[in-house]
Amino acid sequence: METILSVENLSVSFNAFAGTVYSVRDVSFELHKGETLAIVGESGSGKTVTTKAILGILPKNGHIDEGKILFHGKDLVQFKEKDFYDVRGKQISLVFQDPLSALNPIMKIGKQISEVLIYHDHMRPDKAKQRALELMEAVGIPDPAVRYDQYPFQFSGGMRQRVVIAIALASNPEILICDEPTTALDVTIQSKILDLINDIKAKNDLSIIFITHDLGVVANMADRVAVMYAGRIVEYGTSQEVFYEPAHPYTWALLSAMPDLNTKETLFSIPGAPPNMLHPPKGDAFAARNQWALELDFEREPPYFRITDTHYAATWLLHPDAPKVEMPEILKNRIRRMKEENDIHG
Fold first, then answer.
1. Whole-prediction pTM value?
2. What is the DSSP secondary-structure string of 101-169?
3. Kind and range of the H or E run holding 62
4. For residue 117, what are the domain limits?
5. 3-state SS, residue 2
6. Tens digit of pLDDT for each residue in 24-65?
7. 235 and 308 part of one domain
8. Is residue 267 part of a domain?
9. Which tens digit of pLDDT belongs to each residue from 143-193?
10. Parallel, antiparallel, or unpaired: how do β-strands 224-229 and 232-238 relate?
């Protein structure tokens, strides 16, 4: 399978008033052509910072300490701002979490789509308008000719998100980064936006990086999943492997915390809070919240243990000499139900 993007040993930090914040620590992953890679984790785990590093849009106090971001053989880490003009918004596009803040409130929707085409593709204004109308129709905005001359406040949240997707797709990018694009939407609209992204991916052979804090959102759309905690990827595998055979206690906790309407079990919450990345903890960053933590977890950071050719997890529980620990019963039951539902829907 063709690798379109390769992130190698990426570390990103921020200079803050209180000191240095180590937001991303030695992160590596690959994105293949035509696949969806989900990056999942709690707020502050480093997901969005990773994608901002890819696009070269880190804040001024943020910097890449080490690592490579290879796109078509070129290292984006070495790019100057002018080098990103032909990449950002053209070859790699971003769908923001909050469409209301992503859109200009005093500019008509049509012009916001058209200006991308004029800037990146050097289209004449009349051609850009025609293409903008086609994009609006493609993302399911009704009456595009009328809507073209309306402002963001005249659109619902779901429709504004469709506009943002249309802008991201305007220049036919190879990679679409979706940064929690459904967080601000209700469940019904959320489902429609996810279906839209899936349809667009299939029609355009897009590669997608989908950022979310909710594993449930990507259950039926991700090909592979990277689970992030405290700036590090702690588990990495195919969607089937991560959902049905999770190996890291943090992944167990995230899956257990997913709302399940088919059970009367009390909703699980992960105890404690993520560590302060001004002072990253010694050893496994999840140890303080992990009921199965070993003494070694508080002393040494675990390496990646290979489970299959495509599945890895950074937990000392996978060491051959570690005590045998089984995932919690609540998660076993949940996985069993998920498997049964998939069998039913075939």
1. 0.92
2. HHS-TTS-HHHHHHHHHHHHS---HHHHHHHHHHHHHHTT-SSHHHHTT--GGGS-HHHHHHHHHHHHH
3. strand 62-71
4. 98-170
5. coil
6. 999 999 999 999 999 999 989 999 999 999 999 999 999 999
7. yes
8. no
9. 999 999 999 999 998 999 999 999 999 989 999 999 988 877 787 888 888
10. antiparallel
